[in-house]
Amino acid sequence: MASAACFFAIPATAQDLVTKDRVGSADAPKELTLRLAGDSPNSSDPDWAAGYKELFADFIQKHPDWRINLQAMSNDIGQEQARLLEQVKSGRGPDCASVDSFQLALFKKNNVLKPLTPYFTKEEIDDLFPFVREGITGDDGEIYAWWYSTDLRVLYRNSAIVPDAPTDWAELKEAALASVDEGMEGFLFNGGRYEGTVFDWLSNFWAQGGQLVDESGKPVFADGENREKILKALDYYKDLVESGAAPQRVSTIVGYDELNAAAAADTTALFVGGNWQLAQLKSTLDSEEFENWTFDQIPGPTADAKATGTGGWTIASFSDDKEKTEMCAAIAKDIFAGPGTALQTNLPTQKAAFDKYDVYKSESFQKFRDLLQYGHARPGVPIYPEISNQLQIAMGDILSGTKTTEQALDDANTAVQAAYGRL
Phi first, then psi: what are they for 45, rounded to 5°? Predict the structure, then answer.
């Protein structure tokens, strides 16, 4: 994600209180181990690192009896989250850590998360976007993590080539074909074997009311009405490629950088991407070119069928020590849920934050807030990673013409059901 402008000046106290592996006095009587991803004083982005150093320095001065021992995750998030889960299950994990919202269900299933409900008000919880509140809440009504930042997928559009926002699949296809006539590649999207491929595409399934799993967590995406809806969404992508509205090479695209590159090279006027790419486009394109780019709701099969995929990060506690759990909740609330998210210009999970922080008062961020009402998180069930894996394979087979849509879906479902039976 593109760097936010640095708006923190680091005082001497921040330099003294925040080191690479410690926040607070080395001889503080209480300590907490905190494992973080890139959102930390050790961020590779110098502006973010500087901002987090001040935030942590301010925080620890309000909690002088504590020392926070910092641990950093590598960029291999999947591997890191798997390691974290195994460590906390065996009692060797940190007291508090970042948990990818994508992986939160696995931590819930293994009963390693400590309730955070007592440390947040009802008003704070009610202010969360619905998909966020649902994601952190257990079957017992307790919240088991604090989801502090999110994102969403949108349709990026070069208005100089495509002046009007497509409102449904048919209009998007028409606009893409018209852009091809203008010398563009057409509509681009992640289509290779990659989690982003499935996540970005799922809006087309969710917009129809499709469900990947039932209330018990059993995969039902290939059953009954869901089967009709998922076939329709898969055939939609297939038709885009076969008609020339999308190039064959989408089946090899496995990252958002490729989409940015196409926009910078002026070879596409339409692509599905994440909200963070707006800042990347602004930093990549010259000002006149950037002025042509805007974003819209991802079109559904009809104009009133709307959905978008949402992700993000949470903070969770694994400690049996209630003081440590309370401290973990305070870190989530006082550092990450507000100023930390604003520092990185990530999307907040509480509606009030869009009015509280100046960075969110722009027209673009207010539009992102409006689109979050259509947000869908990946289902919080252990089988989801295998559903995604098999749908990635199916997408590749469909876009390459190796299998029919029905064959690819049936093969995916067979593999997923087998995996579900082993859980």
Answer: -85, 120
